Protein 1
Amino acid sequence: MKKTYQMEDLDCASCAAKMESAVAKLSGVKSCSISYMTQKITIETESDDQGELMKEIVRLCRKVEPDCRIKL
């Protein structure tokens, strides 16, 4: 399942690249793309249920940039 979420307070392209790399390595994630310009994250997963996986993705993104939020 492929889904796009709006991000808030993503401050730099370097942080976006770090987040994208970390999320792409998660088990169950087929692909991940984060656009600093549009402040969006697009995630393709193996399962239709992204609930638990999204919790881990949010945690990883906040680890890189604590003020960044993903609107679920």
Protein 2
Amino acid sequence: MSGALPQAFWAPQAWLDGGWQSQVLMELDARGHWTRFSAGQPAPAGAQRLDGPVIPSLVDAHSHAFQRAFAGLAERREAGEDDFWSWRDRMYGLALQVRPRQLQAIAAQLYLELLRGGYTQVCEFHYMQHQEDGSAYPGDGLAMSWALAEAAQTAGLGLTLLPVLYAHAGFAQPALRPDQRRFATDAAWVWRAAQAVNAAGRPLLNAGVALHSLRAAHAGDIHALQALVGDTPLPIHIHISEQPQEVRDCLAATGQRPMQYLCDQFAPDARWQLVHATHSEPAEIEAVARSGAGVVICPGTEANLGDGACDLPGWLGQGVPLSLGSDSHVTRAWVEELRWLEYGQRLVRQQRNVAADPAGGQPSSAARLYQAALDGSAAPAGLASWGLRPGARADFLVLDTRGSGLLGLPAAQRLDGLLFASQDPVWAAVHVAGRQVLRQGRHAEEARIAAEFEACMAELWGKD
């Protein structure tokens, strides 16, 4: 990732302004941001020619990096029933063990896998803050945050760090449970952490803030953080309406469903990102749409945890900004997330092409979902713009048109094949801020990253 950036790239095709255009010249500045796009241009001398069609990467808008070390290790049921809450109790066992060095190793492996999955920016919903006994780390107390920043720098993708306000075990609980002791923060702590990260001036690193949930951040906590943030243009994330029990508890405590309560009491705006938003009623969707807030859907995790399927036609129909998250990291590629998003709807509704909108001029489910996730990518990360647009960071993916699911497809239907027919890796190259970080899935540091991750897993779980 060293050396001078190219001044321009040329692609035989590129997904530009919501569709495929041919012979596209893409110019960028010395900071690695786009300046101009020109279609129908023969490749000029001096432009770097790309070997395949170009599409923008996506932002992974919701990540708990440490849970990558738990992926695949909660897929057995020894007795009784298993649900989100029993999974959470087991996950806490991991959360009480991981140290900064281990978190860095886990996150570096994850972030490399996210690059392979077509993401070039990740929003880290970061609540594992303190030492194993709950006491603060020495110095600025942000040892776990800097571990994540180092991991992102090693992998070469952008990181939006979201320190989380986590103060209560439930709607009626004044404090946290003992097994949540590493998470304990208040509004002042979260605000200081976000300011420290933004003041660091590291490349590809910025910070917003997060509230764990309405059950973990009560009204006073939320108002306190809102007062500190004020009009600062930082992203504000919150888990909401992931589980039916959460909805029932919120009704019992407030008399309202979670998203209606949030909209009525705290006036969210376009900075707010509502993560999961699985269980909704039409009036809630309308309230969120009026607020300007976005939703972050995590289809792989929501399926894995048995959360349920969101009202996708409702969110799309109201024009609510939508982005994707990999959350617990049982899935780590946006193609799979979008496939799960559509297939979940097909299973629930017993229909096909649920996301398609022929009346609105978009008969392709793949194109509508991808464009929605692309349009929704900037706000969760606190970025002004995203994609192949002047001013956006020059992040992009080069398609391998000979990959499984793409070989022989007409160019106009490559997105359809990518989402619903591809199985193998499909990126010939991945670029971040104009620099190539992966070629055919290979990374300069992949051997070291994998070795450190494997050693960390042996420490956490033991060897066979």
